[in-house]
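Worked example 4.2. Below are the chains of a multi-component assembly; read each line carefully before continuing.
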Amino acid sequence: MHSLRQQRFLGQLFINGILLLVCLAWTIPTFGVLISSFRSEQQIKTSGWWNILPHRAWVETEQLPIPADQSRGVPITIEGVTATFDQFREGVAAPDGRRLIWIGNLRSGHIAVQERRWTMDLNFTTSNYTQILAGKTVTVINPDGTEKFVQGQNIWGAFLNTVTVAIPSTVIPILIAAFAAYGFAWMRFPLRKVMFVGVVALLVVPLQIALIPILRDYKAIGLNGTFLSVWLAHTGFGLPLATYLLYNYISSLPRDILESAFIDGASHFTIFTQLILPLSVPALASFAIFQFLWVWNDFLVAVIFLGLTNQSVQVLTQRIQALVGQRGEDWHLLTAAAFISMVVPLTVFFGLQRYFVRGLMAGSVKG
Amino acid sequence: MSVLEWLGANLGRLVFSLIVPALTFVGLYYGFIFLRDSKAPQWVTMIVAILWGVGGVAVLYWVSNWLVEKLSPAWMSRIQPFIFVGPAMAILTWYLAIPAFRTLYRSFLLRDTNQFRDIQNYVDIFTSRNMQIAFRNNLMWVAIGTTLCVAFGLLVAVLADRSRLENFAKALIFLPMAISFVGAGVIWRFVYDPNAAVGLVNAVVTTLGGKAQSWLALVQPWNNLFLIVILIWLQTGYAMVLLSAAIKGVPEDLIEAARVDGANEFQVFFRIIIPYIQGTLITVTTTIVIFTLKIFDVVLVMTGGNFGTTVIGVEFYQQFFIYQNEGLGSAIAIVLLILVIPVMLYNLREFSQQEVF
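Applying the procedure described above to all two chains together yields the following structure tokens:
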């Protein structure tokens, strides 16, 4: 009996151990960038985010004045250690385990006495976020006290654009698909089956197939570069899945509800808006989350129809991609921008996770 | 009843029926003009745009239905279904069905002209060095990426099913699904950066005594594997959720019976659970395969398709959008379409076997 319990305990330990390892591996990349987004430009470029964890490093314990009248190449003796200036610049180990470093140049500066200690780098700043959100110049104070002026990136504008793109691109296809799903489920008309087979066939069609002709149409009628063009595109590309999912749900609603409503003299339109839409909220919500995340995170459709250059309509993914391209060295801005772009989808995701999972299970065929 | 008499009796109704839609269109048109030309603060434009877009669609349905309900009952029941289904079908036709044929046509043309060049675009695709690399890489993405996504998803689903940490672990592994590819690109640049002070991988490598490397640029073609890791990170959550639900659907007494008959855990897994969840496994696999075939944003953000990491999606984007070569871009899109046709046929066959319609 005893060994069985022991065995079970070991089994649990093994399972939880592997699970925790996988979770750790899955979380570390995001966690690292989250931490980095609160570190200054200089910290990001010179030391990894993992320095926030306890680690052994050289810590300054004391500052000494530099000896007067030294010349380059001539050995100098400080605190019983003799070395040249250039060696001191690199850092020289003292016999007691400490380290001496010449900070500054030959005529000005100081000697730092460092000791190897357990330490954590817990200096955080929100300046990355203020820089990236503001559209105007921002003053940034460097760790050494100097100030510098930086042109802000105005991610806020891109954020508003993303909201403007994402909400109608989520609601419009749902509305249109719900009408169609009701039509397919509860109305009889010619070519009904052919049309629905068409919907099923289009489920996996890659949207790349449509971009070239649609962009031509948009240019012909002057629609490219407008939010309407992206709404319609997302509607078109989201409709097959939306119609398919909502059809599955609406057609499974009990038939007698509808029949009694008909006997009471309600029209299709009334039944749809008063009865079917409220009953379908779970299905509508799961597709809404699915579509919202997809649209919010989309880059391809936005860049093709809104264009590469017009900043007044750019969405977040475009702006971040531009940051990566032009200013690959501005890590501190990238981290903050990436997190600003994640706030909304992560909130939606955690708030409505259950609906999202249900949506995934209902329609795992999207093209 | 003569036409005139009917007109006299119904003139008011007729005029009214025309005025309401006309007013709707005028209202929507002015909304559009406002959005196009206004210099209002951005948040005002945002709110107007959302109300205009969402409200506009709702109003259009309402007005057209209102019109149809004015008709005689026979005509109403004939036309009303198309009010419900029509808009969806029209958009699908304009945005997906017809473009497939227009793209096919365009793939035989030279750039954006109307000049035929037979199958020369396809010849170019299959002989260009970049496209050959792209095909090879896509094969790697599909084969390795999909296999590992499903394998990890299955592993986590099985382990989580027996653990008290189930919900916690699932949420963490599922979380990357909410992150955009562009955002994921930023996150993973911090993992692979050539500078050991920034890149996590190089920090580990140098701590272990190795030499920092530019993982995404130097070690070809294995750098593709480092990019595929990002896909696995993003998509395992999806596989896990579906497979986990399927595993919970395996009847407990079936598993108990096998155990009583002396089957060990591995036999239970491979002989009972796997066959039982086969349908879900196929669904998950095909979905990830299709998703991976079209992979684009990750590669664009991480390497821009350089260093031998280009894929079909990136080549399409470059040819069509950057080099403005519509003919070649169309041909690449058609290749992509041909690659998903087996899955489309499979879906259609599954659908026709259901008796719902």
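Take a moment to check your reading of the output against the notes. Residues 128-353 of chain B form a domain with the MetI-like fold fold (CATH 1.10.3720.10). The radius of gyration of chain B is 28 Å.
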